[in-house]
């Protein structure tokens, strides 16, 4: 029959499945980086506030 057409269709399905997995991984990694940057920013703000509090005692 038409074995070339079947092989092409299977290749397209395989490639599509791989693309779906790659897109899901990129989406999850993007969310991970967003959460991580929020934590880093929060830590930086807390460190900055702590330093300001330490310095503020010299201005009272």
Keywords:
single chain; 60 residues; mainly alpha; 1 helix; rod-shaped
Give the overall pLDDT as a whole number: 83
Poorly predicted sequence stretches spanning 5 or more consecutive residues: none
Q: Separation of termini?
A: 90 Å
Question: Which class of secondary structure composition applies to the elements?
Answer: mainly alpha
Helix amount = over 70%
Order of helices and strands: H
Number of helices: 1
The number of strands is 0
| Major sheet summary line | none
Percentage beta strand? under 5%
Report Rg: 26 Å
Overall 3D geometry?
rod-shaped
Short description:
The protein is mostly helical and 60 residues long. It has 1 helix and no strands.
Question: Would you mind describing this structure in some detail?
Answer:
By secondary structure, the chain is mainly alpha-helical. The protein has one helix at 3-56. 0% of the residues are buried. The model has no long low-confidence stretch (mean pLDDT 83).
Please give the structural blueprint.
Blueprint: H1 3-56
């Amino acid at each position: 029959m038409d074995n070339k057409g079947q092989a092409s269709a299977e290749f397209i399905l395989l490639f599509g499945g791989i693309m779906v997995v790659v897109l899901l991984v990129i989406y999850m990694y993007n969310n991970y980086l967003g959460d991580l940057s929020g934590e880093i920013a929060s830590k930086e703000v807390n460190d900055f506030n702590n330093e300001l509090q330490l310095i503020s005692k010299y201005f009272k």
